Amino acid sequence: MDRLDELTIFVAILDSASLSGAARRLRRSAPAVTRALAALEERLGTRLIERTTRRLAPTEAGLRLADMARRVLADYEQAVREDPDAPLRGKLRITAPQVFGRRHVTALVMRFLDAHPAMQVELLFNDRNLDLIEEGLDLAVRIGALADAGLVARRVGEVRRMVVASPAYLARRGTPNTPQELERHDVVFTAIRSPLEEWRFRHAGRDMAVKLAPRLTLNDTEATLVAVRDGFGLGRALSYQVADDLAAGTLVRLLADYEPESLPVHLVVSSARYMAPKLRALLEFLAARLAALPPLQPLPPARVPITAAPKPAGRRQAGAPSAPPSRKTRRP
């Protein structure tokens, strides 16, 4: 086996913390990765990685070799790129939240590929935070606090959780002025990350949770917004998801004074050391353009005019006929 290939496999095993993870990252079979490690240890006459059924850990000799191997691989990468202006080539794998990826990442990646014809990019949209190393990913877009302190992150903006409704719904049912008034309204609930039927708010430095009794529950944000635009009830979404609707007047922002803290938006990579030029180029390209997007800019508090709620008509007795209120349909 080629010596550089040997070192590449060794470093991938350490970065992935598993033989199977290294195999996926390098797109090789797990037995091939295992044989390569065994051959390297036999040739050097020392154990490089302690292996148990639950984890891998580098030995002292393995740590020394890893440091040297990373330098050798970085020097080799630089050496083969003799011309700093040589075209970028190769493949990168990126993950992003589904709606954000569809609305913003896809178009930017296509522009990057237009500028670099020898490059390939695989996009994986998932609302779950995929493990970069375990899944063999090069870069991720993350919305919210970062759980993994080992990731290298570049902040590109922020978003907010907003309660919204259509003008037709508010004209028919009135505007809630506090979270406690939500119990008198129809709610369209999106159940993706948490099964708890509640919305959390923050006001005057205090957090609060309001339990809901949704009329309609969905597991897709876009479907939720279709129902909310149609006047079916109140919904909640991230600010970038409703920015166009708010600008067009299709939806109205509610309870702005009770919105939770903003959520940061980051680009993350597993390591900044020895970053491949193609990855660095894509990171810089995306960071500059995402940071300039209006939906990711800080939003000022927006006070919504208070609309008096219509007088309640009283509760309908069970079994009594009732005609559904008419709704003005608004198409997205």
What report would you give on this structure?
- The chain has 332 residues and is α/β, with parallel strands linked by helices.
- The protein has 3 domains: 3-80, Winged helix-like DNA-binding domain superfamily/Winged helix DNA-binding domain (Arc Repressor Mutant, subunit A, Orthogonal Bundle); 90-158 and 263-296, Periplasmic binding protein-like II (D-Maltodextrin-Binding Protein, domain 2); 161-258, Periplasmic binding protein-like II (D-Maltodextrin-Binding Protein, domain 2).
- Helix content is 35%, strand content 21%.
- It has 9 helices and 14 strands.
- It has a 5-stranded mixed β-sheet with strand order 4-3-5-14-6, with helices on one face. A 3-stranded antiparallel β-sheet has the order 12-7-13. The chain has a two-stranded antiparallel ribbon with strand order 1-2.
- 29% of the residues are buried.
CATH topology of the largest domain: D-Maltodextrin-Binding Protein, domain 2
Secondary-structure-based class equals alpha/beta
- Spatial gap, N to C terminus: 57 Å
Major β-sheet profile: 5 strands, mixed
Q: Provide a count of the helices.
A: 9
Order of helices and strands: HHHEEHEHEEEEHEEEEHEHEEH
